[in-house]
Amino acid sequence: MRAKTLIALACACAAVTVTAAAGADNAGFLYGTVETDSDNSYTGFLRWGTEEAFWDDHFNSTKDDLEYARRGSDDDDRERIEIFGIKIGFKGHGSWHGGRVLTLRYGDIATIEPSRSDRARVTLKSGRVLELDGGSNDMGASVTVLDASLGEVKLRWRDIERITFSAAPKGAVPPATRLYGKVRGRDADFEGYIQWDLQECLSTDDLDGESEDGDLSIEMGRIKAIEKRNRSGAWVEMRDGRRLLLEDTNDVDHSIDGIFVEDARYGRVELDWDAFERVDFEVPETSGRGYDDYPPARELTGKVTDEDGNVYRGRLIYDLDESESWEMLHGDLDDVEYNIPFEMVKSVEPASRDSSIVVLKNGLELELEDSQDVGDSNDGVLVISADGDETLIRWRDVKKVEFD
To answer: How many angstroms separate the CA atoms of 56 and 64, rounded?
Structure first.
């Protein structure tokens, strides 16, 4: 009788799982067609390496095309560095040498065309074309396609000719559910979609750790909560009520690469182990914004007020680099790194040499630091008026930047 009962329960659980998968929301999942050099194509849900799988995930690289940043390289307008009266160089500006870091949401991309292992041509929905060169493991990563006919197909970067993104069709069943939860930090709490160790983001991904009985790999979907115990381990609470201590891997100790939270209030935040306290996982109602929810980017416009009270209005090139709404403003607060799309930013006001007050369009205010975007290494703001006149306001002269 007991055996029959267990079999019945197992069948019931399997039925629930299948039903949940069949009705799962697929809008937030990466989807598209990958064409290869051998003239084959594969269409389905996509995953970058073992990491990104959603439209709000970040594609990272380095920008080579820095037309505006070059305008800030005039040696006569930079602060010279001297040691014992000997001039050895310049401080601050001209940081275009070697490129700039790029952070781009997959939802803003139309196509990616790899050219070799560390380069690619990326076309945005707005039509803007970016020539990218290395900068992260997203360049050169394998791409896995869950093809509707063939199943899982893993493609090498060097064999890919083009990736064309599109919204997932209705009825297409995603491979798993997305991780979502409430994260308690040392100084602030966050809620949203989670990428654990900058990698695990699906219910089928594994959390690895050493228990008192040996190595364990636990599917993230089975976990109810993770609570930091100390630098070398964490308590893992299972959905069945069990509580385990796992240690000595970068999934559960201070060597973790970070914890991403896609918090609707801020964009994406990243906590390190020192800032993290606990996460409680929940089943999300949706998988996130769909591909069609990312409109073509618009140019940044607004006004800059300088220290003398002069006001300049027009198109803005922030830090002589960021010029469109999809681009990110970076900064740290209490061991949490904020990656905020400029479309969410209302104003930036320098507060000290290393920090600025950032006000968001939702009314929230943050004092961010330790980033070129908010400190004195910022190259300033170029304002292009409606008549085409250009005015460069160096960061040391900026009182406030306000975005439309």
So the answer is: 23
